[in-house]
Amino acid sequence: ARFHGNPRSGRWELLGPRPPLAAMFADGTAPGADVESLWRSARSARCEAKSCQTGKISTAETAVQSHTSRDAGVQTDQSKDAVQDFQQEVQVDYASLLSFLQRVEDAVIKELNKNWKSRAFDGFEVNWTDQNETVLCLHTLSYPEAQDQNLQVTSVSWNATGSVVACSYGRLDGGDWSTEKSYVCTWNLDRRGLNPQRPDLVVDVPSSVMCLAFHPSQPSLVAGGLFSGELVVWDTSRTEDPVIWRTGMTDDTHTDPVYQVNWLPDAKHRNHARLLSVSTDGKILVWREERDGRLALAEGFAMVAQQIPRSAQLKKFARGEAAVGVTSLSFSHFDPRVFVVGVEGGYSLKCSTAAETLALHRTGSSVPLRAPAELAFSPHGGPVYSVSCSPFHRQVLNLFLSCGTDGQVHLHSMLQTQALVSLQLSKKYLFCVRWSPVRPLVFAAASGEGNCNQRFCSIGDVHLVDFEKSSRKPAVSIKQAAGERPVYCLEFNIKQTRLLAAGDATGTVKVWQLSSDFTEQGPREMNHLEQLASEIMD
Amino acid sequence: AEVEETLKRIQAHKGVIATIVINAEGIPIRTTLDNSTTVQYAGLLHQLTMKARSTVRDIDPQNDLTFLRIRSKKHEIMVAPDKEYLLIVIQNPCE
């Protein structure tokens, strides 16, 4: 049937023949059209639900702790057997040995002769190491607290291994009995992170320390002599209280400042070295260690003016009683009983520990003091501040140097009283002189202070003299202190032979590295010096 | 006795510091130095002489070592080699 919309009733009306009314419109509900969702069921038709679970992990708690330990040490013992004589084992056929020697003897003698006369190698020198031409300042070490108190470096010392340098602070220009605190500072130069303003160890000392000496084989022991006349030995490896021995103030102690302290090797007990101290009260005392940390007097010497031998040549200097305050001492390297002493009166004296005569000394001391002086050498024009025996020259020559306030260095042989060479190094006082440990012809001297031409000039210098180059003037003069203060002490480093430490009045220690011409022995140096000495002696 | 005479003659020569005779194994037979120094010299120079000899023969198999001299800053060491022995003389050639 066809319908059209009836505008009057708003209803659709049937177009065309009308079907029966009852069949035309009737209320009815038509069920809605449902469309089944396909995707979900299709999807579920394709998928399956599954689940999984990891298996159970088994864990367990345990703890481990080690609780026993043992220390064990290993040490090789020195073998008690002597080295076996090699000649026991060898069977020698003398006949064949003789024929061998007869065959080669001529050839060898010919070569020996050729060698003796040959000039082929004259002046021929080989350089195996890099040549370093200049003198450098490697380190400038100081302790600011001591510098604030205007303390000066009175002494420097290198330890047995050559890696630690120690310096003592005090005053050399103080004349009173000072109770000023002072310090002993050490720096380990081989340590990384070396801070030049912060010493590795600082020891507070109640009195001014005038001199220092490290033990020659135990790297941590250092001995110092004080202004009060006492001697103290410190062990730098101890952290709480480094003092291990001291002399204390007894009747035996020096009554004047101790200006030099040395360790003496003790032949009987290898490590128990003895200490020797030198002071301006004229006494030279040898101390040994006692069990309770005390140093007790083992033997002693006293220099009394009347007992000093005067030789005929020195008559004109023997006016009145010259003071016999001892300022410095040096042992001969070849005869351990012989030592040279420098005194305030300007003499240097040859002495022997084997001397028997007793000293004419007033006050009693626990050990009788002997007079050791055997020979007096020609004097300086002022007090002698330092003497040094050469480690190189054989027994016949035995050379030593002395220096004093007259600015001169005298080279003496122990065999004669007149000096072999007198060098006027500077117009200022010379405070310290030391032979080089590697080159027989080189020594260093520290200078400063003094009056030159009515003007007070106090430039501190370290002079290095090389007899091979010139015996009249220094080869190199190093200006040490920027503020023109004197240099009071210097020491060569025996293990690291290029280093030289020098301490001055501004409270700094400078470590200088020397150029290679000061540290390498030339081919015939020993002979040059013997020649030099014998030329002058004749 | 003649052995000693010969060695004394060499030792007495100008500038000679020491004389050592070692056998083919490097063991010292006669010496004018102390024990430990002699053993040191003997061992070192024996090895060096063998090395020098093999160097010469490697370069030319018909050649052989006749004498070895080592010059150092302080002295000169002379070695006279042989099949069974080695004579070492140390001289200080300072004029």
Automatic annotation (TrEMBL), chain A:
Keywords from the UniProt entry: Cytoplasm, Repeat, WD repeat
Location of this chain's protein in the cell: Cytoplasm
GO biological process, one term: intraciliary transport
GO CC, any one term: cytoplasmic dynein complex
GO molecular function: dynein heavy chain binding; dynein light chain binding
Cited InterPro entries: Dynein_IC, WD40/YVTN_repeat-like_dom_sf, WD40_repeat_dom_sf, WD40_rpt
UniProt xrefs under Gene3D superfamilies: YVTN repeat-like/Quinoprotein amine dehydrogenase (2.130.10.10)
Bias-annotated ranges (Polar residues): 58-67
Region (Disordered): 58-80
Record-given protein name: WDR34 protein
Organism: Calonectris borealis
Gene from which this protein is expressed: Wdr34
From TrEMBL, chain B:
Keywords carried by this UniProt record: Cytoplasm, Cytoskeleton, Dynein, Microtubule, Motor protein, Transport
Domain Roadblock/LAMTOR2: 3-91
UniProt keyword annotation of Transport present: yes
Cross-referenced InterPro entries: DYNLRB1/2 (IPR016561), Roadblock/LAMTOR2_dom (IPR004942)
GO-annotated cellular components: cytoplasmic dynein complex; microtubule
Biological processes annotated in GO: microtubule-based movement
Location within or outside the cell: Cytoplasm, Cytoskeleton
Role: Acts as one of several non-catalytic accessory components of the cytoplasmic dynein 1 complex that are thought to be involved in linking dynein to cargos and to adapter proteins that regulate dynein function. Cytoplasmic dynein 1 acts as a motor for the intracellular retrograde motility of vesicles and organelles along microtubules.
Family membership noted in the UniProt record: Belongs to the GAMAD family.
Protein name, UniProt field: DLRB2 protein
Gene that produces this protein: Dynlrb2
